[in-house]
Amino acid sequence: MQIKATEQALLDWTGDLLAVGITEGETKLTGDLATLDEKLAGTIADLIAEDEFEGKSGTTVVGRVGGKNTVRKIALIGLGKAEDLTINSWRNAAAEIARLAKKEKTLGISLPLGSASAPDVAQAMTEAIILALHEDNRFKSEPESKKPKLETVELIGLAGQDEAISRGSTIADGVILARELVNAPANEVTPVTMAQTAQQLATDYGLEIKILEAADCAQFEQGMGAYLGVGQASEIPPKFIHLIYKPQGTAKRKVAIVGKSLTFDSGGLNLKPSGSGIETMKMDMGGGAATLGAAKAIAQLKPDTEVHFICAATENMISGKAMHPGDILKAANGKTIEVNNTDAEGRLTLADALIYAETLEVDAIVDLATLTGACIVALGNDIAGLWSTDDALTAEMKAAAESAGEKFWQLPMEEKYFEGLKSQIADMKNTGPRAGGSITAALFLKQFIKDTPWMHLDVAGPVWAESSGGINNKGATGFPVRTLVNWVSN
Ligand code: BES
Ligand code: MN
Ligand code: ZN
C-alpha cells in the first residue's frame, strides 16, 4: 500500500472510493463539495438526507455513485464540531476511512484542514491509515479476514507533504514492531530473540549495541542481583540489551529509555492463579517492545538527541532454582530488597536497569513498564500512569503525548506511602499493601535513581486493546511508541 499526497483537486480525483470529511452541522454543501455533488448527480446530498448524516464524530455513510462516473463510491466521515477538532479528529477519521476502504484498490481522502498544520495532519493520517489496517496474522495458517486490497491512498489537499507522510510511515513501522513483539507468545519472543531483534536494528540502522550476559550483569558495580534474581529460574539466559542512537555532530541532549522486558511473567513462586490473566503475560515485555519500536523509528528519523534504549530482558519462572518468597536480593547500587512477593518482579529488573541508565550520565531517564494491575484498576485500559521527579520533563512528555493522541495521567509520588515498603530485615520490601499499589511501585523505582530527572510510565493497561477502534485493532497496540518518538524529536 502506498500513501501519497496528490496534486489533484477534489473535483478531479478519480478512483474507487472518495472519502470526504464533514464537520458537524456543515451538511449544507457549499464550494467544491457542492460542485462535486453536482458532478455526481446529487449523490452526496442524497446520502446526507437519507442517512440523516450530521457530521457527528465517528459517523460514516457510504454510497455507490451511479452511472459511468470516475469515482465508484463516495464516503462521508463526520469530524465532530469544528471547535472541538484536535489532531486526533483527523487521526480517527483516517483510521475509520481506511477500515471502510479495505476492499477497494484506490482511496482518495479529503478532510478539511481547519486551523491545523498540514504536516501534522498528513503525518497523523498516514500513521492512522497504516495502523488501522495492520493485522497480525503471523500465527494463523490461514488468515481469517481478507487482506486489505488497498493499493494507493491519496491525500487530497495535502500536496507537498511527502516528508510528513514518510515520517508518519516510519513511526507506524516502529509501532508495528512493538505490536509484533507483544503479540508474539512467550515461546516465540524470549530474552534471546529480543536481543536478536535489537541486534538486527543495530545492523540495519547503524546503532551501537551492547548485550550484557548474566556474568557481565553480575560484574556490573555491586552486581545486578535484583535483575538476575528474577531470571534465575528460567531455562533461557537473561539478556541485558543496550542500544545507542547517536546523532551526527554533537548531541543536543542525552536521554535513556528503559523498558520492562519480562517475556513471560508467571508470578514466580507467588504463582499467578488461574483467572488472574497468567495466559496474557506474554505482554509483560510491552515496555521493552515499545522501547525497541521507538529505537527503530528514531534511528531513521535521526533527531539531534542521543538516545540510550535499555531492555533488561528475562522471564519470571518457577523451578528449584527460583527465588523464594522472602529472599533478599542486592541491587547494583548495594541496596537490599526483601522479595515478599515474587510477582512484583518488574520493579526488581527495573531497579538494576535504572542504576545502569544513570551511569550513562544522561539528562533524563524515562522508564515504561507493564508494572501493576493496580494502575489498570485506577485508570482503566486506555490511560497510562505517569510519575516524575521533574516538572520540565513532565511538561515535555505531556505535550508529546497530546500530539500523539496517547493518554497519560499524572499520579502522585506520595513519599509517605514508602512506609508500606519498610522491611524489618532489608533496606526495603518489593511489595507494599494493596492500596495505592501503583504508587508504591513508583516509589520503589525511585530508590534506584540518584539525581537524574526521571519519569516512570505504567503502561499495563494501554499496551493491549480488547477491541478494535481508532488506530488500534484487538491485540497489541504499540503504545506509547508515538509519544516517545515525539518526545525525543521535539
Ligand atoms: N506484570 C504484572 C502487572 C500486570 C498486570 C500487567 C496485569 C498487565 C496486566 C506485574 O508483574 C505484577 O504481577 N504485578 C502485581 C504486583 C503485586 C504482586 C504487588 C499486580 O499488579 O498484581
Ligand atoms: Mn508480576
Ligand atoms: Zn510483570
Describe the structure.
The protein starts with a strand and ends with a helix. The mean pLDDT is 97. It has 490 residues and is an alpha/beta fold. It folds into 2 domains: 146 residues, Leucine Aminopeptidase, subunit E, domain 1 (3-Layer(aba) Sandwich); 318 residues, Zn peptidases (Aminopeptidase). Helix 5 packs antiparallel against helix 9 and helix 10 runs parallel beside helix 13. It is elongated. The chain contains 14 helices and 19 strands. The structure holds ligand BES, manganese (II) ion and zinc ion. Ligand BES binds next to helix 11.
Summarize the SSE layout with pairings.
Blueprint: E1 2-6, E2 15-22, H1 31-39, H2 43-50, E3 60-64, E4 71-78, H3 87-100, E5 106-110, H4 118-133, E6 152-156, H5 162-183, H6 191-205, E7 208-212, H7 214-219, H8 225-231, E8 239-245, E9 253-265, H9 286-301, E10 305-316, E11 328-330, E12 336-338, H10 346-358, E13 364-369, H11 373-379, E14 383-388, H12 391-404, E15 407-410, E16 428-429, H13 437-446, E17 454-458, E18 464-465, E19 475-476, H14 481-489
Parallel strand pairs: 1-6, 2-4, 2-5, 5-6, 9-10, 9-13, 12-16, 13-17, 14-15
Antiparallel strand pairs: 3-4, 7-8, 8-10, 11-12, 14-17, 18-19
Helix pairs in contact: 3-4, 4-5, 5-9, 6-9, 8-10, 9-14, 10-13, 12-14
Ligand BES binds at residues 265, 277, 284, 341, 343-346, 370-374, 431, 437, 460.
